[in-house]
Design goal:
heterodimer, A: alpha+beta, Ubiquitin-like (UB roll), B: alpha+beta, Aldehyde Oxidoreductase, domain 3, four-stranded mixed beta sheet, four-stranded antiparallel beta sheet, 4 helices, molybdopterin synthase activity (chain B), MoaE_sf (chain B), EC 2.8.1.12 (chain B), Molybdopterin synthase catalytic subunit (chain B)
Chain lengths: 86, 148
């Protein structure tokens, strides 16, 4: 089974309560938004962290992507708020 | 070939040393921006998180974009992470060119892009015990978008 590493940053990490996890890859056709919906269904901190998808940003294999992007062959998904560096 | 120096880490840096590095390239024009942790509103400390596997590569992409747009002799981007207090340096952008407009414009471009396109997140801690993640600001997006 192919794996997908998920990384969480900033308040997403605090809401979920961990900085990452590895899941069975849900398939190339699933979009980032669909996977976020599945994570939110776990309830608890996940439901809270993923309640407002408009506040979330994502990267697949370390490239920023929109939430309607399909997972494809990516092996690393990162979920986080809009960046605030500089 | 542009000389590019990118550093991400907890260590402080010396802006004067970075400017000397850029001046030594012989271009005639050096511009820089230094970002400092702003005090006030009871801010006691700030913590900068980042996405280590992505940060360096993403800054390199932003630097490459600046190099494609302006004739640059050198670029320095330094971004700190970890715990910082008011008055401490957070970020440095320096550019060297043979032309002042290229040095000034590329420096502004780089800091505008860093604010909106590099994976850093700030959390502020206040004297009254509050700790809040900084919200992204629409004016930062607007500042980036003026570059097209």
């Amino acid at each position: 089974m192919v794996a997908l590493d998920i990384l969480y940053f900033a308040w997403v990490r605090e809401g979920v309560g961990k900085d990452g996890e590895t899941i069975d890859h849900p398939g190339a056709e699933m979009t980032v938004a669909e996977l976020i919906g599945q994570l939110a269904e776990r309830g608890g901190g996940y439901a809270q962290a993923f309640a407002e998808t408009g506040r979330l940003r994502a990267a697949l294999d370390q490239n920023f992507v929109s939430l309607d992007t399909k997972l494809g062959e990516a092996r690393e998904l990162a979920l986080f708020p809009p960046v605030t560096g500089g | 070939m542009t000389e590019a120096h990118i550093a991400v880490g907890e260590a402080d840096f010396d802006p004067a040393a970075q400017l000397s590095r850029l001046e030594a390239l012989g271009g005639g024009a050096v511009a820089s921006f230094t970002g400092i942790v702003r005090g006030g509103d009871g801010l006691q400390a700030m913590r900068l998180d980042h996405y280590p596997a992505m940060t360096q590569a993403q800054i390199a992409r932003i630097v490459a974009e600046a190099q494609a747009r302006w004739p640059l002799l050198g670029v320095v981007v330094i971004h700190r992470v970890g715990d910082l207090t008011p008055g401490e340096r957070i970020v440095f952008v320096g550019t060297a060119s043979s032309h002042r407009a290229a040095a000034l414009e590329s420096c502004a471009f780089l800091i505008d892009w860093l604010k909106t396109s590099a994976p850093f997140w700030k959390k502020e801690r206040f004297a009254d015990g509050r700790a809040e993640w900084v919200e992204a600001r629409a004016e930062d997006d607007a500042a980036r978008e003026r570059w097209g």
